[in-house]
Amino acid sequence: MVAFAILIFLFLGSVEGFSTKSQPCTYDQSKICKPALATAAFSTISFLLGAVTSVISGFLGMKIATYANARTTLEARNGVGKAFITAFRSGAVMGFLLAAHGLLVLYIAINLFKLYYGDDWAGLFEAITGYGLGGSSMALFGRVGGGIYTKAADVGADLVGKVERNIPEDDPRNPAVIADNVGDNVGDIAGMGSDLFGSYAESSCAALVVASISSFGINHELTPILYPLLISSVGIIVCLITTLFATDFFEIKAVKEIEPSLKRQFNISTVLMTVGIGIVSWIALPSSFTIFNFGDQKAVKNWQLFLCVAAGLWAGLIIGFVTEYYTSNAYSSNAGLRVLVGTDGFAIGSAALVSLALFGAFVSRAAISTVDVLTPKVFIGLLVGAMLPYWFSAMTMKSVGSAALKMVEEVRRQFNTIPGLMEGTAKPDYAT
Fold first, then answer.
1. CB-side exposure of 51: number of CA atoms within 13 Å?
2. How many other C-beta atoms are found inside a 10 Å radius of the C-beta of residue 317?
3. DSSP one-letter string for 288-333
4. With 50 as the cut, is the pLDDT of residue 365 above it?
């Protein structure tokens, strides 16, 4: 984290040769904006804030999941309904914590940075973008590290335990069973939580950058410029209401009722959120305003912005249903495609939309009117960018294979050297 922060400071500070002199603003040459060195310093601070917030969110999520696992197990003795409510509320707590925590830190950072930047709102929100980058950087390590951990433990436990020793999955006699469960917690809770936090922070910061160079930023209208944060705040309230439909209004009595209940949450939250977005757009936004559009200020109506946000919301619902179609047991004829689609469809779709938002924020802030792919630097960048995911995936799979092999060797060693392990009279060394 510190190494990344140093690189960010060096790269951003070197843009103007680490100049400490104020300079004319990009979008209004008659005004003076803060020096590039200040933007580098505050971007580094916001990066660290985002990274720390992401780490804390992942850690608290794992703590919540650990406590929830035991409580869900106890409630399962009283029926599937009690167990579902406990598990659902535990997941809701993590979701509320992640959203509220990220929103609170971002809002505080904006107000603290505003004490220095004053009327230079373009510079202020450019520095704030480091917050989303920090969250994504930690999400990278959480996702990759957690994924390698859980898959290595899973492969080691299954190959030796299920294939060689013919014992059931998650059998306490298997030395890798604890590592497998811990890996699920790290990868699915900390990794997923950090990943969603990174997408959430990046999309908010990208929208703030675009808003800062619109008429909101030029006229210093704080409420409209914080429109992305207001949408997130409404989302927390909507989700709080939606959870009542799963835990209080409809009772779960059988396992087959769980999936329809979760789908009902998805539908209800989308409808309520659409109404919430409409209310916020009508109250917080003026009827007409301008945004920076490839060199010009383009007039936009508040209902047009509402349609854009609502379209993204309903796109998320569609992605969820498509993913559910290809992965749910209800459509067993398509079960073979679950490898292609995966269970993270919504997170992947969100990341794709965030990438589009970040690109839009970049071209707006950099005042780029056209992108010529035939330019050598741009073309090289496209090739390198297209290559990186495959290279990174190859290194990740290689790491999983190496770690899984060591896990297999350790599990075999314990089965062969610990007397009474297969008979259940001795306990394995889970810590090794």
1. 18
2. 17
3. EEEEEETTEEEEEEHHHHHHHHHHHHHHHHHHHHHHHHHHSGGGGG
4. yes
**Residue given tokens 């990220």 in the structure block:** 102
What is the rounded average pLDDT of the residues 196-213? 83
For 306-312, what is the mean pLDDT? 91
pLDDT at 186: 79
CB 34, CB 120: distance < 8 Å:
yes
Q: CB neighbours of 288 closer than 8 A, spacing ≥ 6? A: 299, 300, 301, 302
Question: How far is the C-alpha of 167 from the C-alpha of 163, rounded, in Å?
Answer: 8
pLDDT-derived band at 336 (thresholds 50, 70, 90) equals very low
Helices and strands, counts by H and E, the chain: 14, 4
Task: Give the model's pLDDT for residue 55.
Answer: 86
SS3 23: strand
Burial class (CB in 10 A: 0-12, 13-18, 19+), 292: buried
Handedness of CA 72, 75, 79, 85 (dihedral sign): negative
Convert 237-246 to b/e letters by CB count within 10 Å (16 or more is b). Answer: ebbeebbeeb
Residue 32's SS3 state is strand
CB 61 within 8 A of CB 90: no
Q: Can you tell me the distance from the alpha carbon of 63 to that of 67, in angstroms, rounded to the nearest whole number? A: 6
Which pTM was predicted?
0.81
pLDDT computed for residue 124 by the predictor: 87
